[in-house]
Amino acid sequence: MKKILSIIISVVFVLSMTAAVVSAQSYNPNGGCDITVTLKKADPANVVKDGIIGEGEYEKFDADLSPDSTNLTLVFGNNAAMYTPAEEMLGTMEYYFSWDEVHGFNFAVKCTPPEYDQTIPVGTGEKPGDQFLCNLGLQVECAPAETRGELPLFYYAISRNAKTGEYMEGHYNQLGNTGSYDPNPGTDFEVAFGADGSVIYEWSIPFANFTTTEVANGMRFGFTLCSVAGTDTPDGDEKNYNCYGVSFGEYGYMVDQRYAPSHAVATLSDEQIAGGTTGGDTTNPGTQPDDTTPGTDNPGTDPVVTDDPGTDPVVTDNPGTDPVTPDNPTEGGSDNPTENGNNVPSNNNKAPSTADPIVIMAIASAVSACGFAVSKKRK
User: Fold this and answer.
1) Which of 9, 77, 196, 298 could form an S-S bond across to 243 if both were Cys, CB 3.0 to 4.6 Å?
2) Rounded CA gap, 324 and 342, in Å?
């Protein structure tokens, strides 16, 4: 490994004299998604959007959080140095899932972003866009199968300003089968902040938005959940430069789409989740925020509020991760390799066992120096 690394660095030093460095965008240590989830059934009465992961509400998914072997994808935008906070946040990720006939697909994501500011306001993009993800947010994409071969695409993003309490919702009119998805905060989703710097996203999405299959035991669908944070600003010179995250599934914000990505795969089960005291599990403080009121006294997690929240962010040439506009609905929202409209089978080759950021930056630099350009699509 040391010999290979030495060769890569040598090539980089030679070629970097004539080329600018670009980021590799994302890294999956496992070499691919390969995530399957069994969704147990919850009592609808226990599914409450209160920022608390309650007993009987979900079942926790045992995700591999090792940076050497995880099948989650670390994203770091246009700056390879952002791999470090992405890996740091990886170690804090918690995922919870369930389903029921009333709410649909229920999930909660808890994480502790090491650093973020909230300077990009909602509604600064087109339809209204999801630029706020460069500061903080959760993006979801769902499909009736593991890949994007079946449309219409369902893509949505949520966030909340930790100081003002303002909820943020972003999309590009890729609103799935209904074409009119419009969730209500506190009812359909919630974003809560803990005094320990953690963020909890709770969300339920009716199945009718992304599948026409009968909702019953054994039904399968694909999904991606991408938690993002960062310190990008509306007037920054380069979008997605100080931005990082972790994607559960490979159709996440900033995930490189050149390698035949796939969603995580969920299968519904009639098995009932045990327990069920509505209002949350107060015996386990590790699964709920200490303070669900927006804003905390933790200076390391409180976002910065700008004096000019109406400033439009810089338009992003985000490589194949933000969905395209409905003008080109057949392409979903990525630079996803396709054959006759269907996804190319996933690459089963495994990545090196190390997730050393030096290796990642070296590879990114070498690729850039050789003149390779990631195909970009404007939102």
Assistant:
1) 77
2) 17
